[in-house]
Amino acid sequence: MEWLLSKKLLPYLHPFWQGAMLALGFLTWKIGLDLRRQRLRTLTLDDRPAWVARHVRWGTRFMIGISIGYIIGVVELIYVLDELAFRSSHFYFATIAYVLFLCGWFYGYQLLQRKGKRQEMRETHTFCVTWALFISLGAAIMGFILLP
Prior knowledge:
Layout: H1 13-40, H2 48-80, H3 89-113, H4 118-143
Helix pairs in contact: 1-2, 1-4, 2-3, 3-4
């Protein structure tokens, strides 16, 4: 157990965790794009509620996972790598992406509750999540320089 918690392996926990979460995020994004494609078709599909439920389920898992990963990253940066969080561009871009993910989750939740103007919320949900995913990829690349 001591070997696992050593400063040799612990700095790699956050990158591996967030890498898995980004893969999950892109899977959720693809399901959402499939939902959009179905909605834009004139055909009515009987399995649309199942696709919505799948998108919500994977999106919830993703938001929980990305939140845990964000906290792990800040803790690792401060306590394991002995760095100040505010000194890296990785921290700023990851925070921007995280806030965009939270906004996307909020608009997705509002869509699920059927509140407000649905088309505007759909577009804002898509905008926030898409930008967050691609900013996260950039933040991941910026994070490589922080690894020991």
